[in-house]
TrEMBL record:
GO biological process: phosphorelay signal transduction system; regulation of DNA-templated transcription
Originating species: Pirellula staleyi (strain ATCC 27377 / DSM 6068 / ICPB 4128)
Domain HTH luxR-type: 146-211
SMART domains: HTH_LUXR, REC
PANTHER family cross-referenced by the UniProt entry: DNA-BINDING TRANSCRIPTIONAL ACTIVATOR DEVR_DOSR
Name the UniProt record assigns to this protein: Two component transcriptional regulator, LuxR family
Length: 213
């Protein structure tokens, strides 16, 4: 019997469409639209809830409402910019005005929609945003390097890596795999060392580069 010496495939990175709106009905409708188009969506009732969840290694696009209590959509956009995020942002408003629209675009929004939004238009812009983010992450990557030596990883380390490149935190990984946070942290350290990758972000970039080959 011949041995299968082929390498395991690089993990597929599913983009996430992040939806932030304090209107539960609008949030449900938008999430249904996004998921009906075959995309993964995560919804949040506030900017703070989104910031608690979001990790810089997550590939995707953000759709956010302007008027929300405590932190507005435009304030969230500014906060992400200050953190150096490249996540594309689409801004929506039920009470659009020139000042809000101007501020959103000056802060880097890829589009601004007045509610109710056109389904086809927002889906097209969301997909554009995802591809733009993918290219931005690739552009930030290190010069082209050799293939990741995934065969060096144990089965558990591979599971941890797959979750890391999907943007999961160590706590989320521990819950998903039924292990302690300390154990998930040890697996993360070992796999980064074996792959000679300095950080989670660089791991994501390398995986994206692998998928382009």
């Amino acid at each position: 019997m011949s041995l299968d010496t082929s390498l395991p495939p690089a993990p597929s990175i599913a983009p996430i469409v992040f939806l932030v709106d304090d209107d539960p009905g609008a949030l449900r409708s938008l999430r249904f639209l996004i998921e009906s188009d075959g995309l993964e969506a995560e919804s949040f009732g506030s900017a703070a809830a989104f910031l608690d969840f979001y990790q810089p290694t997550m590939l995707g696009c953000l759709v956010v409402d302007v008027r929300m209590p405590e932190m507005t959509g435009l304030d969230l956009q500014q906060e992400l910019a200050e953190r150096g995020s490249t996540l594309p942002i689409i801004v929506m408003s039920g009470h659009a005005d020139v000042a809000s629209c101007t501020r959103a675009f000056r802060s880097g929004a890829i589009d601004f929609f007045e509610k109710p939004v056109n389904d086809n238009q927002i889906l097209e812009r969301v997909r554009h945003g995802i591809e733009r983010h993918r290219q931005a992450l690739l552009a930030m990557s290190s010069p082209r390097q050799g293939a990741l030596q995934l065969e060096l990883l144990t089965a558990r380390e591979r599971e941890v890596m797959d979750l890391l490149v999907r943007g999961k935190s160590l706590k989320q990984i521990a819950l998903d795999l039924g292990i302690s946070i300390q154990t998930s942290a040890k697996h993360r350290s070992r796999l980064l060392e074996k792959l000679k990758v300095p950080s989670d972000m660089e791991l994501l970039r390398r995986v994206l580069e692998e998928q382009r080959r």
